């Protein structure tokens, strides 16, 4: 029953074509079956993704991403048990691109809008993604 | 005067017929006489029940359930003194089944809607049952 | 200048007639002169009373009750300095009887509506009396 | 893996003979097999027992006690998940009787040495039993 | 089982002779029978006394003092439930007089060694009495 | 510079031989080069491992384990930034087997010594592993 | 730049006439020049005054009051650095007399409306004066 | 990604002419390029400035100010990592002069409106500047 | 009974001769009679003094200093009720001069050893004086 | 009197020769005169330095470093008021190089021993420098 939240960063492998609509459709199908929810921000080059659900399901999805050739340089930012989901309404919310409004949200919590996955604070990142999801709702 | 809250799980004994309306009518009668309140979620196979009242009354009701052949595999999840009732208005609120809305409430706090009584967190369970009772009010 | 709050329980001496209106009129007169405020719940058999005011005045009123033949089995539940009065508007609020609504208020914080003065929690009792006073306001 | 602690009170059924050494031997055998630990205080008339272990195992032992004819008036005082065992070294520590030293331990936390199971504070009771176990170590 | 601590001040009635040894002997006899413990400081003119034990027993002892002609101007300083006794080893510790060492203890927590019972802080007073009891141990 | 701690569980693939000494020698070599420290408990069937170091290094080691055929059913238990290492002295501490003393350490924090990786509490697990490392020091 | 708040009590010297309007006009002139703000309650016999401003300015005003023959028995109740002014809008708010409404405000926090400057609590006094200033606003 | 906030004071070099509009235009251009935000209060003689952004960018801007001949007596008041920007909407808010309203804001938190940069509290200063920025919004 | 602590700064009036031994002898005599304790640091030019005792006594001593021609520029640093004396053993501890060791104590808490009475932090000052008193003990 | 602590990083300008003994001798001379204390770690390429003292003195020293051609890429890590010095005994402690023991200290708090000045945590850095200073004491 444990509820786990995992946040990771990865880069899109430029040598592989990426069909974002297909990707999200697959996410929705897989996540709904596993009762996993979350949010994905894709700026065209790199992914920031939150996964919420059972520990085994979340691990298993993350482990599959690690071996997926479309993802390079996968870096785990945080993985912790949580009391309540942050994105209960999204089987996988997608936010694409980096327009002015998105940049403004990132700048609330960071010094810029390019993310360094090795040092980014998980709490600040979750705050920014939550703000993005609210603007989309 | 101590006010105690007890939460348990049990499975419905499939070899015995269960008249839920009768069960609840009996609950109401017994609980009202003992000033016991609470909430019962029955998904068709297993029970999750909260009992609130005097320590002796709550113990005595729970002990009776333990010996009731309609309940199998009774597992005590929590029993603590509390400052104030969580379900003061219900001599025994009943929530039956597991429709989409109910599942949604469970998923707020858990990784799925099938409960493992040995590991479920009591606080998360109480939060989910309180959310259910509010939607019924 | 110390502000003190005292809570006690006592039983009405059944061998003495009790004129509640007279009692309250006396209370009002005495308390107003001493700048004492408070609340009295009388269920027909026993008293639960809160006194708020100067330490010497509150002690003196309590000590008089101890020697008053109309009160039997006087039990002191709590006496502490406080920062602010809980019943500033009542020279002595009176709540009589135990109708359904009153019982409901007691059941929010207790396992029943008969009070055991030796074990009742002072904070729960004050919460119940404050709820009663608000319903009367 | 959840670690649960349960505290209950019961009275010895005077119409049934009680072989305390046999009882404890059975306890040790059963508890060791289930990785349950705990402490039992028997003053000749009533039991105060702590059980620590897995939730299902602790529930199952408690449920068996409820139906054991040697126990009357079983009252559950507390049952909560805990972080660490309080009696890890005792498959079932036994403390019998109520000599002067035992009474002294009880008086540290209570107004007397006869326990009212309906109002006794679980934390104070655990403090007293832990003090007894330390004096026996 | 509730454990209560009560602190009061009173003046010795100068028109009545006071046999302190008798008083204490009576205290010891009464308190031991009721499992009440405590501490008494008598400076020759006024008493500061702590009573610890069951709520009914402590109330009853205090109520008897209120009607005892040897005590004048009895002022209740505090009465609260407590978790553990502060003077478990004393059926009634007696500290008499106000020598230099006693005055020094009082001056740690007060501006002087004459006590104003209407404003004295209960916590400071308990700290001073505990220090006195430790010096006597 | 971020310091990250990651805890995971995995099962040994029974169809592959495992040379624990080789494994550890490789660990030591790899970890020392990356300034990664940690602790590994292997009970003969499953691994519990803590990795502490830079976020990218820890991710990269974990991602390699995910794809290592000797590990099956890899489940991530926790991954968080930390202020200070818990195992600074171990390039990779190894604790093998499950003797009586080891079982005793596990029972301090769990209901048994078989770990359910989907529900085990990360803090309790770290407490148990730290206790094991101290006994080995 | 330190912001300091000082509260004192004094008695009006009955042998000197007191022109309250003149006093306040002087206050306003002096305080405005020194950026000092505050509140003054004068019940006809004694003053309760709060001064807020720079430490040197507040000290200097207080020291002048000490030597002013119109003030007798000046007692300093509190003087502390503060983060923000409590009476920023008043170069010197004046509240005169002790009508029913004023007495009611005092009784919220005190046992009566005659102030004992040696024991009055500074926080309660500031709460009462702030309530008075709000009623005047 | 670290977000840093720096607050400093400096004096305008009176021997150099200062074109405030030019200064601010340059600020806006530089800060926007570096994703630095902040607020500047200039009373005609001295500057109080907040810079928020990446640590290197903020340091670099501050270091440039240190060597800028238009600034004399540059004193660093605070520099800390922060969780969220205080002035996200201002590439550089400018507040000029010291009118009555501005003085009133300063007096909320200080004893006067002339700032001593060696002793001014950073938190009070930020509170005053935030209040000014809100009045300008 | 309130216990108050007052800290002030003043300058020695250079036009008046100061007999420090006489001053201290007077202090001892006056303070002992009033149960006032404290500590005095005199660096040859200015005084830093702590007074602890009853509110009226401390006020009265401070008010006398304000009018004493040997003291100039008296600035009140803090005056608050306290729970326990900091200098219970000193009717007035005297520390004179500013040797290397004294300077070292001041530098633990301040940027230098010359005190600015308008901005010095009362807590830091008390820490420094307490350290001095300990080195003298 | 404010006590300020500043931490910065800089790189040694490789085109300028650096006489560390001379540098430190100058530091000692300057700092002692200004009552500034601190600690300097120089690994041969970059500096990590802590300065503690008055705000103006610390600012002035830091501002001089910013313009000193021997320092490149000066990055301010933290500057805050503090209650007590961390390095009171060092007019400027010097720790040079990066031997095994030094690396071990850095690895307690960081993922490696090369510092990224833009992301390093100030608290972790101070903890590491304090550990180094203790090993040198």
From TrEMBL, chains A, B, C, D, E, F, G, H, I, J:
Domain spans labelled BLUF: 3-93
One annotated GO molecular function: FAD binding
InterPro entries xrefs: Acylphosphatase-like_dom_sf, BLUF_domain
Organism: Jannaschia rubra
Coiled coil: none
Gene3D superfamilies: 3.30.70.100
Entry-linked Pfam families: BLUF (PF04940)
Protein encoded by which gene: ycgF
Record's protein name: Blue light-and temperature-regulated antirepressor YcgF
